[in-house]
Task: structure prediction
Amino acid sequence: MRGESDTIAALATAVSQGAIAIVRLSGGKSLPIALLVTRRASLVPRQATLTYLFNDSGEPFDQAIVIFFESPKSYTGEDIVEFQTHGGTLVASMLLDRLIALGARAARAGEFTLRAVLNSKYDLTQAEAVLALTTAKSKRAAALLTRRLKGEMSRFVEELRSELLALLAYCEASIDYAEDLPPQSARAMEERLGRILALLRGTIASSNRRKGLIEGFEAAIIGKPNSGKSSLLNALLGQNRAIVSPNAGTTRDLIAEEALIGGVNLRLIDTAGLRESGDEIERIGVSYAIGAFKDADLIIAVFDGSSVMDENDRITLDLIGGAKERTIIAINKNDLPLLIDIDEFGQFETVSISAKNDIAPLLRALETRLSLEAASEEPLLVSARERAFAAQALSSCQIADDRLKAGELELFAIHINEALLEIGSLTRRAEYGELLDTMFSEFCLGK
Ligand SMILES: Nc1nc2c(ncn2[C@@H]2O[C@H](COP(=O)(O)OP(=O)(O)O)[C@@H](O)[C@H]2O)c(=O)[nH]1
Ligand SMILES: [Mg+2]
Result:
């Protein structure tokens, strides 16, 4: 690919006061430009060279480590030169100006990774992992995404493609000879399609459950007024973020704050107490609370264990009735005598806490849930784009399944072909220009 595209330059590290700043140059003119800036006759590939950088009047303006990565063994597949300059942004921006004066162009966001895709260094799923890594919200996500960089998703796509192709091969033979499918072939095909459906369903479901590992999970704290929601938020954060008061109806707006729990970024949302209220502002607060409940990945339903269950507790119970799997019930105020009837919570996971003194049992429950999400070995669809393609493929396979059972082989083949296209879109390389543009514009500069 050397020499085919222009040469781009960008700051690859954050704009900050760090100890070093890395400026990256990629493209056919990288080496000649770097030789001009360093006034050297040559740079040995993959060797760190300590050298001065010179401005246009021939005066040195920094001492830097320069590394030349010769095409094709570089991140983009093109010639790359990396300059590790002294930190802060001054020297780096002087260097960038100089590189541009010598014929490089300022890179657009994500352009380095885009070139890596265009030069088949990465497929789209790997590029997407690079993007996700820069914004990942949990330590586990880093491991998951690195697995993908090694080609996990590409293998998943290949496996599905070969299964789907095998199905087509079966039925095309029968269509060609205008024959009915022999019953044992039909059964074998149904079984094979059944496995594909299960694989797709499982991967989509587990990716949906785990998407918070990358995007961050959201946990809504709900319950009747005065059950101790705001006290719990403050305890989880280790700081007084929300006003705590014995007056019912104090919290009205949603209060959201992030905390790192079990290595996972959890966005905690404190909400207005659930009750019928005559006060219009409080009613709006309650509708926000219900909205937060619907959107949340996890729900912490807080009950005051020191009082008997009342009609407001019932409002909470009704709400979480359809959301058992994502709910943890926190029976609060266990420093006071227990009056609430625990049997009411039969099928829920419950923990007994005191938001004032001890929330350890809740922390353990949260950590367990979040680490279970991370532990799955299934491949992870990391973006809305990937989840959408997988969902389309699943729906094509479901239609194909119906057609197969109805004995309509030609329609079956059409939908299997659609599924093949949709699955292929997960790893498609360069031809989707528009898609690449939207995807890569989300990248940071220098990536
Ligand atoms: N004894 C005791 N009181 C608590 C506990 N948690 C909260 N409270 C009290 O319950 C009242 C309501 O608390 P608050 O957090 O504002 O409840 P919210 O309306 O659900 O947000 C306040 O007076 C708190 O001090 C607890 O664990 N033990
Ligand atoms: Mg409150």
User: Anything to note?
Assistant: Residues 217-370 form a domain with the Rossmann fold fold (CATH 3.40.50.300).
